[in-house]
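hi!! sorry for the late reply, been swamped w classes. u asked for the two structures so here they r. pasted raw, havent cleaned anything up. first the sequence of the first protein and right below it the tokens
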Amino acid sequence: MCLLGLTLPFLLSVTSSLVMARENENFRENENANATYEIGLWGDLPYSQEQEIGVTRLIEDMNSQKLSFTVHDGDLKAGSNSLCDNSLYAKALGYFNELEAPAAFTPGDNDWTDCDRASNGGYNSLERLDYERQLFFSTPFSLGQRRLRQEVQTAPLCLGVNGAVPCVENRRWTVGRVTYATLNVQGSCNNLCDTAPNPAEYAARNAANIVWLKETFRVAKERNSAAVMLISQADPGWDLSDSTRAPLRNPRTLMETDGQPDGFQSFLLALRDEVIAFRKPVAYVHGDSHYFRIDKPFLDAQGRRLENFTRVETFGDNQGNGTNDVQWLKVSVDPRSREVFSYQPQIVPGNRVAVPTP
């Protein structure tokens, strides 16, 4: 009895200590989940040899800052008069792997959809996308010197040269309490116009993108994510305000009004439904129209602004001015803040053109 009397307090003390240790671990995990971190966004680069030098400086600038990861939102080269040969993709892979932080990437129309243009070599665009899938997306990990494991859309919902293939370029990952996803949404009417439109390829990939979109929001809700960030290439057009850079679109019906084939309406309708249902902040990152901006152009069917939605367009090519727009965007992510994302354009000192560095 004496031994038992001595042992019980000891066991209770050990049990209590273990419970406290677990609680402390959970506290630390929650603290880490809510910790602030920074990411880098860029795309539509490089379009010229001069910009290749600028991209080297841009990568050095990113590496000088402690980024959790980076994302390039597509277009590895100019849309015309530049070959889509294997050396293009090898060079891009080299850029991504020079980045110290994990590097994510989503394809752009210039590096596959538009490769069938004669000035780009007259390639089979699906064969070029197959090649990108093999080179950039053959593992469930990101690119970059540090790797980030990503969820992959493995169902064979997309089309390749030889039929149905997995949409392995569509990726998803969660850092802290924010869920991120890439989607293969393309310029050039999402492959419904230009040199060799492919309605069958579009239909398969668009349906796959909508599946991935809906699944991403479901996962974000299950993980109690504080926000969602989506990254794709195309500027789909959101309203009637910017015919110089994007398709014109009725902001209420989301129907294109400029007479071009509409490769985006069904995707945008699904996106709008998910944004409204999620209620928390949603950032939609794209490139394509080469005009850096952060705004709120998305309206509901009654014409009211979706307050929780932010469009983010990264810097992109400005060939006429060399490295003038070879810049990137730093995003601070704070899951405990009301808007979660805050944005700071990063002007690389060596890439300034109009106003040299002091």
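now the second protein. again sequence first, tokens right under
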Amino acid sequence: MNRGWLASLNRLINRSKIRAGNGNVLKNKEKLTGFRGSLVIPGGRVGVLLIHSLGGNPMELRFVAQSLAREGCTVYCPLLPGLGGGTDVSGLSTWQDWYAAAEKALADLQAHCDTIFVGGMSAGSMVALQLARKHPETVQSLLLFAPTLWPNGWTIPWTFNFFKLVHQKWFANLFHFRQRAPYGIKDDRIRNFVFDSYKTGDRPIEDLFGRGGGLVFEFLRLARDVKKGLAGIKQNTVIFHPREDDQSDLSNALLLQRRLGGMVETVVLDDSYHMVTLDKQRNIVVDRAVDFVQRQRQRIEEREAVNRWKTGQQTERESSAMGGEDRSA
């Protein structure tokens, strides 16, 4: 995405004056700084890492981030080099580069938080799943927004299927995929705001929203790798997916629901297109995301309380046994 769109949404964030909820709020010296262009909202010891879409930026997730911050969470939405719009002009980055940046962001958040949830928008959900797969002890639960394993929504031309035949990145770089209206947004007001932010020069809006073939090639490689390990991802997951997704058919979410190894909740939206975190039903998405995080936090706290009780019981038994041995002596 261009810098005007990013700057406009950043100004909205700065004006929102978000206050973290009560709890163990991070001190100034402990606050995350993040990659340049990232969104960081300091809060308590529960952290949420949110990954933006392919060619997107963290502002796509600002409504979710703000709401989770109000519940006292520390929220980090990094602008991932290569995955973010305008961060890989040369087209040389790989999905391993995106993942390495996400892994660093996870480590940074882990240094400040005791409990971590990870979420992703569209292609970002693949990065989130990869993190959960590689770091099962760190990533407690997952939030997936319009997850995409293969772009097959109703605006994607059937000819895109021929891209499966492309096996070399140099050849993929010869392609440029133009997006079609409605560009993932059903809400006319939000879509017009995005268009106004994009108006630079005489380039058609379809090109400005487009994706280079190399970028798409790397994303599909990542999706294939993630797909192989879905059964091993045991974290509880919530999926938000529109029934009328113009970019990513509902079948993507249903495949994840079938193959993921943990409990999966699926919220099917009936009045939204692909960008569910910005579109008409964003309030439903936000409310259900906050509810999911709250329930998972409670589950973790209850589990930790049980573990502490078991540890106490074990210690008490050991102390009693030692006392018995002393009396015998």
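hope this helps!! also noticed smth abt the second:
Confidence is low (pLDDT under 50) at residues 11-26.
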